[in-house]
Amino acid sequence: MRLTFTLLAMFLALGLWAQNINYFVEVRYLGWDGRGDQSGGPEYTFKIWARDNVDGSESGGQCFYSGDDVSGGGSNGNRTCSPGGSIFGSGVNIRSRFNTSATSLTFRTDAWEKDCDNDCDYEGSCYLGTIGDDDRAQCNPAGPGVSFRAAGLPPCQWNDFGVFQCGSFYYAVRVYWEWASAPSILTEPSPADNNLCAGASMPTFSVSTNSVNGHTLGRFFQWQVSTSTDCANAANWTNIAGATASSYTPSAISGTRLYRCLVTSNCSANFASNTTASQCTRVNVGPFNGANGGDNPPPIQAGVCGLTVLPGTSHSLGTLQPPAVGAINGLIGYAWTATGGSFSNTTQSTTTWTAPVVGGTYSIQVTYLDNCAQANAVSPICNVTVGAPDCDFIYVAPSGTDLTTCGGPTNPCRTLTSANGAMAKLSVSRNHIRMANG
Predict the structure, then answer these.
(1) What is the pTM of this model?
(2) Nearest Cα to 360, choosing from 387, 390, 341, 393?
(3) What angle do CA 92, 159, 18 make, to 5 degrees?
(4) pLDDT digits (tens, 9 = 90+) for 60-85
(5) Distant-in-sequence, close-in-space partners of 266: CB < 8 Å, separation ≥ 6
(6) Quick one: 73 exposed, middle or buried, by C-beta within 10 A (0-12, 13-18, 19+)?
(7) Which residue from 12, 23, 72, 347 could staple onto 104, CB 3.0 to 4.6 Å apart?
(8) Which contiguous run of DSSP H or E holds residue 282?
């Protein structure tokens, strides 16, 4: 017996939702109660279409029919139908839509017992009118609609609907849906700035996201850390192993670290799309002593460390400042010290050091003052050598002359290596060469 069955599924209108989705519809089951005349054997045909409450155009329309090898029928009850005579398997897709606000489906069906030879077209008469397809059922809509985004029907899984009836035919469908937009973060990590001392309890940061009809858009989380020291210019974010919950408590690492959380609405922990980054929070743990693999005190920022300068000359000194990696946040002040010379100020982040008039090597350091009970962090030593006064230099200039008396500020030598050049004038007391103007 020959049948054609036409199904159309259309989601019931629940209104447009702010977050768009992707969805997929599959037919899982087709059945018939076998009430036809069975004159050609108990075979039947289905056709299936679907539309949703946003896009009214139909999709589907595949021809599903049972082969002559299908047994049973009549009073033996329902039997399932296979597409193209093959096995259904997990389901047959009849509709896919992407980036849509649809919320509901409705089904249209057309099915019949097939007595004639054409598997996919209804024939009311064949074999010279002796028989014809019968028991035809056409429903539009066929059965109730499906509100697939309702509460209790979560995304990222197949949700089953049915069995629905049209005449003596039956069908069941399933719907898979997923978010097509990134979540909105409602609760940000707080507080934004945390200045702590070694031994203090570390804060726990949390995020939360928006939900629609009981379905949260925040499905997966990944906390990240950066060694940048200013959230406004943060870079070099790296994932923290195992930090994949909505809350995170960082370790007490000496120095400054920035933290944020990536949240995705994807069905897997893939943060390449549909992902929102939380606001940044800064954690500063003092003093800077390298604890737990953290930061050591940063060096003085100056071009004279390790060099030789003239007596009485002035030189700018500074400290590393955010957003530079390794800079110290949360300080209450600075204390500059040196074994010689003088400072323009001793309490600011920058200062000017004036070299002493007496030659020698001098050490400069800055102490980073904080509110912690532990000893303050102190910079590495910046050593500066103060050279001999001008009169103890051998001078050389392109305008000079290589005479036996050359080498003074007013009569420089012309070359370094000639017989009477500058290098020939070096001695224990005059052991530096200086380029003069001219």
Answers:
(1) 0.76
(2) 387
(3) 105
(4) 998 887 753 333 333 223 344 444 33
(5) 178, 179, 219, 220, 273, 274, 275
(6) buried
(7) 12
(8) strand 281-286
